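In response to the reviewer comment on reproducibility (Comment 2.3), we provide here a single inverse folding case reported in full, input and output, so that an independent group could reproduce the run without further information from us. The structure tokens appear first.
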């Protein structure tokens, strides 16, 4: 995750506003407690982690109606890229979705990350053109 963080920081000029230690503490609290907010699949070579995918479950109330999975992180360490690990992690999460009788896997991807967009398009994903993602942060709640 640290390596992925560095990768994403390389794609933007924006600086993080929350410290690394606080972000780590939040991650441990939210992902590894009694009721994890997300789950992870880890790819290993022998015992060494070489990639991971984190996801959580959701529901799509639109036309199809059904359970969905949101991928929130996908990362393969640079030395292991191009050998099928990313596709394998996506295949595994598709299995998770199929096993819960889900209908789709969603993933948010930065426009400034064209390589990832090519990867997702390559495995058959498509843009949700007419549904821009909106954020309503707690700093704006009345
Ligand atoms: C995107 C990422 C996960 C892909 O993982 P990977 O293990 O290198 O991908 P794979 O080897 O499984 O490739 C699967 C397919 O995608 C294609 N692909 C992968 N990267 C690609 C790229 N940059 N451009 C075009 N096609 C690409 C491969 O050619 C392969 O096609 P094939 O099955 O027809 O041969 C990896 O490059 C990565 O971790 N990038 C940095 C983090 C990142 O951007 N994550 C996504 C955030 S939303």
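Designed residues, in position order:
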């Amino acid at each position: 995750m640290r390596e992925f963080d560095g990768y994403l920081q390389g794609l933007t000029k924006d600086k993080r506003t929350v410290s690394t230690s606080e972000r780590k503490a939040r991650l441990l609290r939210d992902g590894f407690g009694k009721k994890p907010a997300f789950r992870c699949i880890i790819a290993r070579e022998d015992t060494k982690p070489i990639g991971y995918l984190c996801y959580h479950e959701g529901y799509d109330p639109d036309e199809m109606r059904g359970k969905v999975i949101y991928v929130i992180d996908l990362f393969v360490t640079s030395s292991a890229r191009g050998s099928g690990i990313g596709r394998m992690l996506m295949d595994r999460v598709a299995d998770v979705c199929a096993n819960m009788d889900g209908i789709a896997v969603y993933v948010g991807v930065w426009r400034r990350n064209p390589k990832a967009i090519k990867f997702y398009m390559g495995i058959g994903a498509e843009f949700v053109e007419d549904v821009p993602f909106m954020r309503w942060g707690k700093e704006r709640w009345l």
